Amino acid sequence: MDIKIKHLGKAYGEQQILKDFSCLFPEGKTTCIRGKSGSGKTTLLRLLLGLESPDTGEIEGMEGKKIAAVFQEDRLCENLSAASNIRMVCREPITDQQLEEAYKAVALTHIWQKPVRELSGGMRRRVSVLRALLAESDCVVMDEPLKGLDEDTKERTIKYILEKTTRKTLIFVTHEEKEERLLKADGIIEVL
Ligand SMILES: Nc1ncnc2c1ncn2[C@@H]1O[C@H](COP(=O)(O)OP(=O)(O)OP(=O)(O)O)[C@@H](O)[C@H]1O
């Protein structure tokens, strides 16, 4: 089922963030969200995920959907290894070999059993991306997941994102046109 945003309005105090905002996220397709800093992209995702309530309007098509998300912050369990962070969200057991393949796909090496607090920022980003991709879901929502990664790592990670989200609804916030292109986005939504 497509996700339909209908005439959404959201204000924080006097500040109107979204006003009569409507858009569509087609099922099984990739949609990128762009817009200048502070325009309300994260707010839109938070409304979509039910972490905020809209003042007006409604969201259709989220009922019963399994959603996996990457937030702007990594939101990892700091004292656990990458493997434990990933395994804790996977309903089906995930083998060491599957994990190794996933690490390799996004150029994550030498992370061993270290707690994620000891990993670099870019490594942590990729662990949170893998966690969202390996969890069971119908829809994956990502808020600037590749921020801070070098170009080569970005390209590899996007390739893996595409591989793991075939037939899923992917909603991806980015400031980068190149990322939209590499993702072969079916649609681009601008938040003004
Ligand atoms: N909980 C909150 N309380 C008050 N104001 C908020 C809250 N969350 C967001 N805002 C404000 O809403 C506006 C939109 O924020 P939001 O994070 O949605 O923007 P964004 O488009 O995702 O920006 P960026 O590209 O910088 O991540 C900002 O002015 C922000 O300060």
TrEMBL record:
Transmembrane domains' residue ranges: none
Domain named ABC transporter: residues: 3-191
InterPro entries membership: AAA+_ATPase, ABC_SmlMolc_Importer, ABC_transporter-like_ATP-bd, ABC_transporter-like_CS, P-loop_NTPase
Record keywords, A-Z: ATP-binding, Nucleotide-binding, Transport
Pfam families hit by this protein: ABC_tran
GO molecular function terms listed in the Swiss-Prot or TrEMBL record: ATP binding
Superkingdom, natural source: Bacteria
Protein's UniProt name: ATP-binding cassette domain-containing protein
